[in-house]
Amino acid sequence: MEKARQQKPEWLKVRLAQGEEYFRLKKILRQHQLNTVCEDALCPNVAECWGSGTATFMILGDICTRACKFCAVKSGRPQAYDLEEPARVASAIQELKLRYAVITSVDRDDLEDGGAFIFAETIRKARELCPGIGIETLIPDFRGNREALKVVVDAKPDVLAHNVETVPRLYPVARQGSRYSRSLDHLRNAKSFGIDIVTKSSIMLGLGENKEEALKVLHDLRDAKVDIVTLGQYLQPTRAHLPVDRYYSLEEFAEFRDYCKSLGFTQVESSPLSRSSYHAERLSNF
User: Fold this and answer.
1) Order of strands, sheet of 228-233, starting from the edge strand that comes earlier in the sequence
2) How far lies 103's CA from each of 43, 55, 139, 257, in Å?
3) Phi then psi for 57, rounded to 5 degrees?
4) What is the pTM of this model?
5) Residue 190: is it exposed, middle or buried by C-beta count within 10 angstroms (0-12/13-18/19+)?
6) Distance CA 144, CA 191 (A)
7) CB within 10 Å: which end of the chain, N or C, has fewer?
8) Mean pLDDT over all residues of the chain?
9) Distance (Å, rounded) from C-alpha 124 to C-alpha 152?
C-alpha cells in the first residue's frame, strides 16, 4: 500500500522569490546565458540567497546523465560542452561583485573526465578576472577517476565539495548510477595530492534512513577527513520524485549539529532548509 503523503510542517514554508536584488541577479545570469542549481533543482532557498546576491552556478549544461530520484534537474543526453562558459561565469561573478562563488555541475558521464577540465578552467578564469575571489566547487564523482579529480584539485578551489546525499542502503533507490563507497573515496582522495584543501559533503534527511544509518554516514565522512558537513530536510520536488518518508523536527536537527561538532567537523550547517551551498561563504570562513 502506498505510504500516505506527509504534511509539511509550518516552519518549512519558504517565502516567494521577489525583490530588486533577486531580479537583478536573474537578469545578469540570463545575459551571460548561465544556469544555476538554485533554479534547476528547485532549491527552497532561492529567494533568500538571490535576495542577498548569492547564487550557485551550474556549469556543463542543464541536462544530467543520471536521474537521481530526489533531484529536479533534467536528465537525458547532454549537448557538447561550451568552452566559452568558464569566461562567462567569471564575467558574471565580476558583474555581481561576489566575494565568494559556488560552482557545481550536472553529472556528465558522457565525458571521459566528467567535465573536470571545465571546472578547472572556470576556477582559473574567475581568479584571473576577480583576484581574491573565494571559490567552492561542488563536483560529481567523475566515476571515480582520480586524474579528473586531480585536475580540479590542482586548480586550487578554496573548498571542494562532493555530496554523499543519503545512506548506503538507499543508493539503489535514490542514486542509481552512483556508489556510496566511490563517493567516500572521492572525498578522501581529494586530500591525497599534497595540496591543502578543505572538503565538504552534505546529507539529506527524510528519504527513508533511520537515525543510526545517518550517524554512521557522519562517522564515515569524518574518517574520510571531511571538514564541513551540511544536513537538510529532503523535500519532494515533484510528484514524480521520491516521497518524503518523514520530516525531522528543529530539535532533531540541533541534535545532529551537536553530534557533528563532537565528531570534529570544523563547520556544520544543520537545519531543515540547509542545502550544500547554503551559507557557503560563512561555513568556509572565507
Assistant:
1) 35-36, 56-59, 100-105, 134-138, 159-161, 198-205, 228-233, 267-270
2) 15, 9, 8, 25
3) -70, 135
4) 0.88
5) buried
6) 14
7) N
8) 86
9) 10
